[in-house]
Design a protein that fits this description.
By secondary structure, the chain is α/β, with parallel strands linked by helices. The chain has nine helices and seven strands. The model has no long low-confidence stretch (mean pLDDT 88).
Length: 214
């Protein structure tokens, strides 16, 4: 299912443009510091033998690495068709095609196409949605055991950077925007759903958390 609203369509075009660059960057530099923290948190709670759902999966390097290190299978969802083309191609190169499935579309609209997974991943995805609560709650509904997510810290220079990017996107006539949502609210929504925080890491701009269902 394609994205329906102007923001989602613009997000699809924006991330499709960078798909090839994302894959080349990872091939050259590996995981970003916040992603290393996310993997550390997942390693602490254990993910081997699990099913994984990655929302906003991009080119797939995160969940495909989990598969190589012991996860059982993964479903990736992304708005950008070029991102999914790269993910499928990469899965083939890594002999992971039979253990991966990819869905194009806005997770908020295609969530009925996926079953609940043991672990849900949202790496730098919450900041791409104006409706953070809706995204988090729908993601929680698909989370069987644990949720791992990375999103912006609520700091003045992060907000300044997001505002600057918004100005550039406005000049480019793009409807896509990124957001700095309140981490206190996000944590409250997750804990209210019956999960407790088991890991937290930070970089200057990013907050990484892993929650486990109690």
């Amino acid at each position: 299912m394609s994205a329906c609203c102007p923001h989602a369509r613009s997000a699809s075009r924006f991330f499709s443009f960078f798909a090839g660059r994302y894959r080349k960057r990872f091939g050259k530099k590996g995981f970003e510091p916040s992603q290393k923290q996310l993997l550390e948190g997942l390693d602490r709670i254990g993910y081997r033998g699990t099913t994984v759902l990655e929302i906003g999966c991009g080119v797939g390097h995160l969940h495909q690495t989990l598969l190589e290190q012991g996860a059982n299978s993964a479903v990736g969802i992304d708005l950008a068709p070029s991102m999914l083309d790269e993910a499928r191609d990469w899965a083939g190169e890594r002999n992971l095609s039979e253990r991966t499935r990819y869905i194009e579309g806005d997770f908020m609209l295609v969530d009925d196409q996926v079953d609940q997974a043991d672990i849900s991943l949202l790496d730098k995805v919450v900041c791409c949605y104006p409706d953070a609560r809706g995204l988090v709650e729908k993601s929680l509904a698909k989370t069987g055991h644990a949720m791992a997510l990375t999103y912006p810290r609520d700091r003045w220079f992060v907000r300044l950077g997001v505002s600057a990017i918004a100005g550039v996107l406005w000049l480019a006539r793009s409807d896509f925007r990124s957001y700095v949502h309140d981490p206190v609210q996000i944590e409250r929504w997750i804990k209210t759903s019956g999960l407790e925080k088991r890991f937290e890491g930070t970089t200057p701009a990013w907050l990484t958390q892993v929650y486990v269902r109690t």
